[in-house]
Here is the input.
Amino acid sequence: MDWLWNLLDPTWWLTLFGAFATIGVLAIIFAETGLLLGFFLPGDSLLVAAGIFSSAAVAKGIGIEPLSWPVLLIGTPLCAIAGAQLGHFLGARFGRKMFDRPDSRLFKREHVDRAEEFFEKFGPARAVILARFVPIVRTFMNPVAGVLEMPARRFFLWNVIGGVVWVEGLLLLGHFLGSKVEPKQIDKYILPGVFLIVLISLIPIIVEVIKKRRERKHLPEPNGKHHRVH
Here is the structure.
């Protein structure tokens, strides 16, 4: 399971990219919002970590070049918006054929169903904005909005609002944290903080799993009887 933890660890990605960490962050944000297979990539935690390690002193603590703060501020929201717009286009262009594939380690039909439920529950505008803050739903919401025929211009408006608020909010949070912590204290405060953000970002997924299990327990059996709840 070490490989899975590495995929969720933003500092692992930043170290992997090295001198190209800024470009790597832009690529991951685009892929996570625009490509279905990008749902497993870190989003929230990566943005916070990128803001933190835009500080030269803090970046030196893990042996990488500081990320470019101006490029992050401008480039990451553009990538988040462009990625989501691509996802919407693909959904509108190919329809449900995009999702006609068997379940695998990387693709689960339940991710699509969850995004559709989110869309129907909150309505198109709020769903596009709120999905930015929910892992996995963030990735699948965009093509689902296209499949459900949300107009491209309307999607673009709410996509821009959601993308900017999500990206800039987390970047600024990270940048603030990076400016307040002494470089020598990075292992004591920053890294545990990033891992905490990873765990927090997984809470909606855990809640959804528990909710689904409870719903299955209450489903009627074929003979009409209900499952017993202990």
Q: What stands out?
A: The radius of gyration is 19 Å. The chain has eleven helices and no strands. Residues 77 and 165 are 9 Å apart (CA to CA).
